[in-house]
From TrEMBL:
Annotated HTH merR-type domain residues: 7-76
Gene Ontology terms, MF aspect: DNA binding; DNA-binding transcription factor activity
Source species of the chain: Dyella dinghuensis
Keywords: DNA-binding, Transcription, Transcription regulation
Gene3D superfamilies, per the entry: 1.10.1660.10
Keyword Chloroplast: no
Full protein name: Heavy metal-responsive transcriptional regulator
The keyword Protease belongs to this UniProt entry's keyword annotation: no
PANTHER family: HEAVY METAL-DEPENDENT TRANSCRIPTIONAL REGULATOR HI_0293-RELATED (PTHR30204:SF94), REDOX-CYCLING DRUG-SENSING TRANSCRIPTIONAL ACTIVATOR SOXR (PTHR30204)
Length: 141
């Protein structure tokens, strides 16, 4: 099987993948996207696989994966023996991380709701329960 001949400009790839041109350059520098071939003019020349890879990266970012995690997922996607199992494990880890963040945000939300309820919205700033809670070092534990 032969590799398709690179013929797409960076602008075309960016538009079709739904990412800015600077993002493509950044992903190349970070090793998430292979360095493209260069035309005689020095311009980058891409093939369809670059678009697929960029869409993969964008979707993984939308799911909350970090660039380092995406790098791992890309490497695992090429591993025919253990790739799928490891990808599932990474997704489970990401889900657990999201659940932990949701629990923390829920805790913060409840605390903020209580402070808002306790605040009359008028009077002396020193008596404001919100400002007191933010200034109280002991309550930060």
């Amino acid at each position: 099987m032969t590799t398709p001949t690179p013929s797409l400009t960076i602008g075309t790839v960016a538009k079709r993948a739904g990412v800015p041109i600077d993002t493509i350059r950044y992903y190349e520098r970070e090793g998430l996207l292979p360095e493209p071939l260069r035309r005689a003019s020095g311009y980058r020349s891409y093939n369809e696989s670059a678009i697929s890879r960029l869409r993969f990266i964008r979707r993984a970012k939308d799911l909350g994966f970090t660039l380092e995690e995406i790098r791992d997922l890309l490497a695992l996607s090429a591993d025919r023996h253990r790739g799928v199992k490891a990808v599932r494990q990474r997704a489970e880890q990401r889900l657990a991380s999201i659940d932990a963040r949701i629990a923390e945000l829920t805790r913060i939300r409840k605390g903020l709701e209580q402070l808002i309820e306790a605040c009359p919205g008028r009077g002396d700033p020193e008596q404001c329960p919100i400002l007191r809670a933010l200034a109280d070092e002991e309550s930060q534990a």
